[in-house]
Fold:
Amino acid sequence: MSEMRLALWKQIFYQALAAFVAFIVLVPMLWVVSMSLDPRNIARPTEFRIIPAGASLEAYVKVLDKPTNNPVTFTELLINQLKLAGGVTLASVLIGVFAAYAFSRVNFAGRRWLMLGIITVLMLPGIATITPLFALLNRVQLLDPDTGKVIFNLRNSLWGVGVAMISGALPFAIWNLKGYLDTIPRELEEAARIDGAGPNQTFFLIVLPLSIPALAVTAFLGFLGGWTEFALSWMFLTEPKDFTLAMSLYNMVGQYSDNTPWSAFSAMALLIAAPVAIVYLLLQKYIVSGLTIGSVK
Structure:
């Protein structure tokens, strides 16, 4: 079979289209990088220079010290954000893969209705659940037995925000992993059982390794959602010590920003975006599909 080649005009058209898409994607990113290196501390960007005159890392040093007027450092914000993103990722993947395997392989009573419930939750916008979650988590409190004062409120804590975020991430994790587990041939598990493997060995040694691509995608999306989450944190948290990076980035604009220069804002935005890019690069080789194709002869 001869190799098919595109006509010259089609090649030129597709290459021009690709160049245009790359231009509109990369130029705004380069502009943000350029503004983060601008030493003038301007309130509004007025011109685009890839390398501004007198470029320096002063904005990064300032942001890494204390991004906003709140008495909280960048390190504390980073730790809070890692707790949320890491906790949501770990919980959604661990609980999700066990639940997805049960939905995929076990025909138990109420299975169809539970799956419909998961789909219904996925159809709801996340912002619609803030009010009920706020009211529910706000009722979980610990009181001082002597004074009767509230010493812990689940809603006003990173634990509460994490629980609320997991309630939204878990349905997607279950649905996504269940769809992938359905594609793994049951003959692999049957062959393992014939060889004497138990249910746990079959799951951990056969099914789980084949599910790495789906686990990687689910983990990355869970981390991305936890890292960029803003609405729940902004509505639930009131103590600066619990604030996240996304909340601090929002605090750098508006009436309480104290005229934050664009260099500091751009530097903060790039520092927040960097971990997501790093996690994606680490998981990139696993985010593939079809690893089970050809595994059964």
About this structure: Confidence is low (pLDDT under 50) at residues 290-297. The first helix runs from residue 8 to 36.
